[in-house]
Amino acid sequence: MNTATFTFRRALKGDLPAIVGLLADDALGATRESFESPLPSAYDDAFVAIDCDPNNELVVAVDASNDVVGVLQMTFIPYLTYRGGWRALIEGVRIASTLRSSGLGRRLFEWAIQRAADRHCHMVQLTSDKARPDAIRFYEALGFKASHEGLKLHLPPKAGGAP
After folding, report:
1. What is the pTM of this model?
2. Is position 161 within any domain?
3. Mean pLDDT score, 84-113
């Protein structure tokens, strides 16, 4: 497949069902996403919060028909370390199952890494679930190194949703 036919742009609200569909389209996502119609309002709320935050970008890959076939979220984070440097955090990466291993994921990451450089970030970081060894190999092939141990603590949901 010619990956040159795909473009990358900020997600639009109308892309939300396709994005959630991508997020739900794997073994882990199927257990934590609610891909139903209509989508739960929490997805709309999260989209608005991301879209309004100048340090967050929800990016989609679209094909020649403008169908969403990939997604990732970038968060730009200021730090005091590295002399007040900025980092880009990439999360929520998915490529349509029919396009995996086509080179589209590599192109999307190359675009995202350039976006981080354009925002003067000194580092791009990400986490990947240990249950996704293929994804980890993909990130390592892009030059990412498992230089730190990542730890997460899931908190119980609060009544009323988002803060």
Report:
1. 0.89
2. no
3. 95
